[in-house]
Design a protein that fits this description.
Layout (H helix, E strand, L loop, with lengths): L24 H5 L4 E2 L11 H11 L11 H11 L6 E4 L2 H12 L5 E6 L5 H6 L4 E6 L8 H7 L4 E7 L11 H10 L5 E5 L13 H4 L7 E6 L12 E4 L2 H10 L7 H10 L3 H24 L3 E2 L6 E5 L4 H14 L2 E2 L1 E2 L8 E5 L3 H18 L1
Parallel strand pairs: 1-11, 3-4, 3-5, 5-6, 6-7
Antiparallel strand pairs: 2-8, 7-8, 9-10, 10-13, 12-13
Helix pairs in contact: 2-10, 4-9, 11-13, 12-13
Length: 370
Amino acid sequence: MTVRFNSHLTSIPGYSPGVPKGHSAEDVASSNLAQLASNESPFAPLPEVVEAITRAAKAMNRYPDPAATRLRQRLADRHEIEPGQVSVANGSCEFLLAAAEALLEPGAEIVYAWPSFSMYPNMAAMTGAREIRVPLKEDQTHDLEAMLAEITAATQIVIVCNPNNPTGTYIPFAEIADFVERVPDHVQIILDEAYIEFQVYDDPANSIDLLKRHPNLVLLRTFSKTHSLAGLRVGYALGSPAFKAAVEAVRQPFSVNALAQAAAVEALEHGDVIQRQIETQIAERVRVESGVADLGLRATDSQANFSWISLGDNGAEIEDAVVGSLAEAEIVVRAGKLLGGPGWLRVSYGTPEENDRFVAALGEAIKAHG
């Protein structure tokens, strides 16, 4: 007789990371591999942040502050809200899984667009809730009206990823505000804004103003993309004290380690430098998408730090071959079929040299397989 694990484990899709198997972060950094698969920042952490990590490392014999008091206070000050409305976690994924544990159960429903962040399907599968995937519009944007139509008395969570991962598409703030206004009060709205700083249409602070009127709204943000801290995993949520209490009740203590807390606190002191890095990535976005258009391929209007590129009418047939050709050129991207969009590629923006290599290699791959 063998150990029997929970039957629902077989329905949990898991998460497919963009890091090549057998490669550590150090391997990637010291090689010619262009790691354009995980939407990371191409910039190393700021020297001041590295110094803060080094200082914090001297006290690694002690547990971190379980409440992340300094970091939460800095975030509250920055966003002009109360510290009780701020919680931090080991990346936004921890918030999503904790929200599922706190809000979902058999008979409950969760609504989200698809394709979208590949962690969302785990939330229903791990809790026995019913998931409702609402297809994106033809232009790869959220169909908010269709999402509203799917909300019922059983709906516990609705998620909007804005800008959306993997499509990079953005919903203007006015449409988000109207959507939030129309969602019933019993539904927890999760507005996943991991890439909000990369869009050029609205002030990222606009959505924070919605918190004052909608206690059922929570915003998820991260230090992984703009602050170059993907390796330390620091995410934060802005919302009601009730949401904060619920997710903290079901997750492990000490979830954000001391090095991550110190790094995030210091990173917040260098907003001007971070903003210049964001602007550099936006400029690279224009260059990459121009190069893709010159190849005769279509990309969405990305407002993130990556592009979502259609491989054409026979894209699903040639996707594996194209991804393989890029890998042979030491360029790692994400295959669309792994993200809910067969026939597409998602490519993060690297350094200018890496981006030029990608466009050139993609052109060669399309000639060979298209």
